[in-house]
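U., I forgot to send this yesterday:
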Amino acid sequence: MTQHGTPFTERDIAGMPTALLFGFTFCPDICPSTLMELTTDLKVLGADGDRIKVVFVSIDPDRDTQAHLKEYMSSFDQRIVAVLGSPESIAAIARAYGAKYRKVPTPSGYTFDHSSAVFLLDRDGDISAILDAREPQEQRLSKLRGLLR
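Result:
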């Protein structure tokens, strides 16, 4: 399901270049930074940004409810879709792309250690490139434009 309460399946990205990332809304730095970078990148790409599906997969189904995701995602480009699902479905998607995450107890509850990569999927759903959080914008934009070719 998306942050808007609509169903979401693999068919929603079939045949479309996709930027796929895994994270959680209580992430203190990597997730909001990456989502903000993608927001900026989509703006720079202009109309070409409409041709890339950006999907944020929540790895925290206990706290990332549909309502919470909707509020959180309002800070980012409206073209970015947040999806949530069962722990099993999230784990299956993460395994399919090699994304890693694990729940880590903290004194106030828990957090997650997780992959910070953004997986760029071609129209066939295969990984064509990976965006790294430390890449300069021009390098990210080059990879995103390459995804559209």
